[in-house]
């Protein structure tokens, strides 16, 4: 959420930001918010004056009674004041709710290095790593998994529906191997492992995402104020809701490991029967709370760590700087890492790496103490490994002409001696 104080002082910056994002329908919101904010503050001052007046009137009544004088007129005035205060407070509440609702939906301020573009076509390739191999006639990963007895999509569809799967045998072990490989690396880099709750209440969830845009892909628990998490990022962001850090304790780095739940699934092609875009998957996520002056350096550090993982796995990839028309409202800047998928001969997203600056911190009320002053922390997040997507990349990139998939050497310590499937 945008800091209201900053918006009061710099409305033109937000308007330019909205123009850059091509989010023109919200331009009028800026003036509307500021008008309501001015009225809101005026009413607050009036309510405070009435409370002060109520106290003075109470003192006057006591004085008159002690002096044995008639306090009838003053009593009548005293009776009217609470009703006036109540009316103003109702207006204050309505205005405050309206201001917050629009503030929550104004997008984050974009970093100057974000490329301008209308949609995915405007995304800019930053660099590429590894040789993207061509493998004509490669079997789709879903078919390969079924043929090798490593997954069961039919039975999962019967008992849970489309978009779910049973992973079995060596591929199930590979899933855990990828998680442990990533966690070991992050622990060495000073990250604290967190296994978060797999459900969040609506209020903290609104602190990390715009539910108006995101709620349609989330699972809500019926008759409950709970949502299944779409990523551990959301639960870790809420971990320090309404807290104040000491500056010396920052940056704080977490490695979240969890199952993730999303309604969205692929609608055609390799996604129809496979594990690339599904309702449930496992992921290790990096999350950082830091001082504002450190966030851009840490954003590059997050990206470098994610790249390190895919380099060690030997999977060809490219890094993409996401443009203004594709970035979403929460991030100020976002990189994607896209892995090479030989069957399609396309790069597909496997990592999302974002600097959300103070946007989530304002929504979650997370600050840090700097001397006698307090400021908003910055929050950053990045995928370390989304196992189902990495498994697809491994199946396609390391499959030989006989249909045998060779395990990346970096995972040997985690595979109980298994080197190929």
Brief summary:
The chain has 13 helices and 15 strands. With 421 residues, the protein is an alpha+beta fold. The chain folds into 2 domains: 4-103, Helix Hairpins, CATH 1.10.287; 120-414, BirA Bifunctional Protein, domain 2.
How would you characterize the overall build of this protein?
By secondary structure, the chain is of the alpha+beta class. α3 (27-66) runs antiparallel to α4 (72-103) and α7 (169-188) packs across α13. Helix content is 41%, strand content 19%. It has 2 domains: 4-103, Serine-tRNA synthetase, tRNA binding domain (Helix Hairpins), CATH 1.10.287; 120-414, BirA Bifunctional Protein, domain 2 (2-Layer Sandwich), CATH 3.30.930.10. It has 13 helices and 15 strands. The mean pLDDT is 93. It has helices spanning 4-9, 11-20, 27-66, 72-103, 141-147, 153-159, 169-188, 202-206, 211-214, 232-237, 295-313, 359-364, 387-397, and strands at 124-129, 151-152, 166-167, 192-194, 199-200, 227-228, 244-246, 252-261, 280-290, 317-321, 333-341, 346-355, 367-370, 373-376, 378-386.
